[in-house]
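Supplementary Text 2. Reproducibility record for the structural model of the 184-residue chain.

All settings were left at their defaults, and a single model was retained for analysis rather than an ensemble. We include the record here because the model underlies the residue-level annotations in Supplementary Table 4.
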Amino acid sequence: MVSIFMTTFLALLLAHLLADFPLQTNRIFRLKVAGNAGLVLHVLIHILTTALLVRRPASHLDLLLVLGVVHFLIDWIKLRFPHDPQWPGFLLDQLAHLLSLGLLALWQPEVTAVLSPWLMLPLIWLVLLPALLMLLWVWANDVQQDTRYQASPSVHWASRRLLTLSQQTGWATVLLVFVCRFIL
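Retained model, structure tokens:
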């Protein structure tokens, strides 16, 4: 039997993966990097995505507000202290978000998801694909600056194509999640 905490955590994780990867378009990313207004837009997308995946979101406004504030702070810190190479910062950012989602689920385990855990688990695995492709794209761009890899056709291909592949697979997963949310 899946615990109440785990159901809450799965809903928060699915919403996070959707909002941080496929729903964070190139334009939203550029706005986020340009200033706090873009970061607020990104956080609002997180809050709305989470609200769509939990039952009675209006009764969980405190959770949604804390989620937004914490996400803003994590991303604000990452943007103010960029790393070179970027892939370790990418992983630390996602780890910080994962930890915060776990703490939020512990804080309010009574928040229920609109989707069953047995449906959310495969959807999370699917949404992890664009996240993994994004990580590989970041890594390829990092290592391409190293003279040892500049002539590598696979690294060059990855730095040119994986962002697009991540976005294409991401939109397919967004569509699938929203079909499950509104039709099933």
